Amino acid sequence: MTTGGEFDYDHIPPGYYDRVMTEGPAIQRAWHRQKFSRVRELLALPPGGRLLDVGCGPGSFLGGFDLDHEGTAAELVGIDIAAEQVEYANQRYGHAQRRFLSLGPDDEWPFPAAHFDAITIIEVVEHLHPEQIRSIADRCGRVLKPGGSIVITTPNYASHWPVLEWLIARASAVSYHEQHITRFNRFTVRRRLAAIMGDRFRVVQATTMHFVAPFLAPLSSRVSDSTASALTPRQWWWPFGALIIAKIRFEG
Fold this sequence. Notes:
Elements: H1 16-23, H2 26-43, E1 50-54, H3 60-63, E2 75-80, H4 83-93, E3 98-102, E4 116-122, H5 130-143, E5 144-155, H6 161-171, H7 189-197, E6 201-209, H8 221-230, E7 243-250
Parallel strand pairs: 1-2, 1-4, 2-3, 4-5
Antiparallel strand pairs: 5-7, 6-7
């Protein structure tokens, strides 16, 4: 998503990633659908909880929350530096309980201390330098309740991801090669995140996903999704999935 690295994210058309998720090739649709499902599962947001999505882009993740039933989230907020993506998100997914804000990389986050129960940072940290990741972690520490969770996803460079990155650059309008500047892998992600984010944060779980499931989607979306569902974070220890998913506890 769009975050504030050196790549000019204004060149990405508003809503591009949202349309990929709903109208793109079967593999890309499955990738985002299954990723968001896994993040929601690992997040375990309590009924009436407050969630902040950092680097929300066009709002696709928060847009997937059903806010019309009792016991759903009390507040969903997405933030991003790309004003046009945020405008798209508000137009498509805006709701009394769901809003999106455009904030510059040096802007203060306009939220009270200890306001959110959880924070998601979905395919964002790879777009940032370590000092930028640390700045985001410090801001998360101010607005997150003690004991709250952060769920991070990022490509696993100890997998087949570099091949996928090359294929995406050749086949689509967006290249990740020049966007991804901090690269993680499953074998070092716990240590690196702990070193970057500081001792107030503890990585409680780090696993991988997207080893085979999304790539079954051209054959059958049902088989693809059931495969992804069967390989939950609690069971799937295989370190070579294309995407790392990590849960981090804020110790306060």
